[in-house]
């Protein structure tokens, strides 16, 4: 099965290096050895532990391992890869070659992202206006840094949604997986229904573990004075793979399935976002078009929107980071099986 990945390229800063050199890369400059020979997660864990001896959080260390593991092992030859472009109306894309991941110790090309994989880049980028509105909205939030952020875009490497539409746009419909949209939609529904059945304390426990899995550091519970019920606000910092941190205010809202959050609720969140920070609104419900527009209003702190389906995917991605007791409570193993 062919997947579509985004690699952040330092927010697009090193896109030209990638194109000229025929590779895609990640940072982790602290790790100054070739990771190509590594064959197992345990071997990778030992390397990461050696280079980050001061990390005490097992969850944070696991996040580091997962991030690098995704780049080394989950991205497969013939998968598609997208990187940010200075022109947000174009997508730079290529196909991952069969070569082994490698490390460039010299940095002579001016790119500090030295853990690399060979890629054959397309001769021309593809226009974003060829895609549907949901795809365009999703991919813009994934690729624009730091003006738009969403939970997965805080990672260096992540799988792109709507991959079937992207592959079709390249004229490669035969490579589209035969996954049933109905099956995926049903899985999302099961996950969200189980979330609605959690007691408020269990919902808060789920949020706390998601925050840790997502890499929140020094976060604290934030006060919420709005009209919404079942709301958990947290403010903290997330460390990017590059030596940078962003301040993020995250709102987790357990709303009625099928309901749609309006613009006022999105704007209300802004008053809690710290100066120079970003916001993310995560809900089991969905968003009205006016809410999407409000989240991207110019001149204000940007707010990323994560709806119920995306939240279900988020839980699936970090399922193994949840404590066994909570996983047993949710009983979602079958619903969260990834295609």
TrEMBL record:
Pfam family for this entry, one: Mrr_cat
Enzyme class: hydrolase
Gene Ontology molecular function: any one: endonuclease activity
Boundaries of every Restriction endonuclease type IV Mrr domain copy: 196-315
Record-given protein name: Restriction endonuclease
Keyword Glycoprotein among UniProt keywords: no
PANTHER family named among the record's database cross-references: MRR RESTRICTION SYSTEM PROTEIN, TYPE IV METHYL-DIRECTED RESTRICTION ENZYME ECOKMRR
EC number(s) stated in the UniProt entry for this protein: 3.1.21.-
InterPro entries for the chain: Restrct_endonuc_IV_Mrr, tRNA_endonuc-like_dom_sf, Type_IV_Methyl-Rstrct_Enzyme
Keywords from the UniProt entry: Endonuclease, Hydrolase, Nuclease
């Amino acid at each position: 099965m062919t997947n579509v990945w985004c690699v952040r390229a330092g927010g697009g800063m090193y896109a030209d290096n990638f194109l000229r050199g025929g590779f895609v890369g990640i940072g982790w400059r602290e790790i100054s050895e070739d990771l190509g020979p590594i064959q197992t997660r345990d071997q990778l864990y030992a390397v990461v532990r050696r280079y980050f001896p001061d990390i005490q959080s097992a969850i944070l260390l696991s996040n580091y391992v997962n991030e690098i593991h995704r780049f080394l092992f989950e991205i497969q030859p013939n998968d598609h890869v997208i990187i940010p472009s200075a022109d947000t109306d174009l997508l730079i894309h290529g196909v991952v070659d069969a070569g082994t991941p490698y490390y460039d110790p010299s940095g002579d090309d001016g790119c500090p992202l030295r853990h690399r994989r060979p890629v054959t880049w397309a001769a021309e980028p593809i226009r974003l206006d060829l895609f549907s509105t949901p795809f365009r909205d999703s991919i813009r939030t994934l690729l624009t840094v730091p003006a738009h952020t969403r939970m997965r875009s805080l990672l260096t490497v992540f799988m792109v949604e709507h991959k079937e539409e992207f592959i079709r746009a390249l004229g490669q419909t035969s490579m589209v997986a035969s996954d049933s949209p109905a099956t995926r939609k049903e899985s999302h529904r099961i996950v969200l229904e189980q979330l609605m059945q959690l007691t408020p304390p269990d919902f808060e426990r789920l949020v706390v573990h998601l925050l840790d899995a997502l890499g929140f550091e020094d976060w604290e519970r934030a006060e919420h004075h709005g009209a919404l019920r079942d709301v958990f606000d947290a403010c903290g910092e997330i460390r990017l793979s590059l030596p940078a941190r962003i301040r993020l205010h995250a709102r987790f809202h357990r709303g009625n399935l099928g309901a749609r959050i309006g613009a006022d609720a999105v704007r209300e969140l802004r008053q809690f976002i710290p100066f120079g920070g970003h916001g993310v609104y995560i809900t089991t419900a969905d968003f009205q078009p006016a809410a999407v527009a409000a989240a991207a209003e110019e001149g204000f702190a940007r707010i990323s929107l994560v709806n119920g389906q995306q939240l279900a995917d988020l839980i699936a991605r970090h399922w193994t980071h949840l404590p066994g007791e909570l996983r047993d409570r949710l009983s979602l193993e079958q619903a969260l099986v990834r295609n």
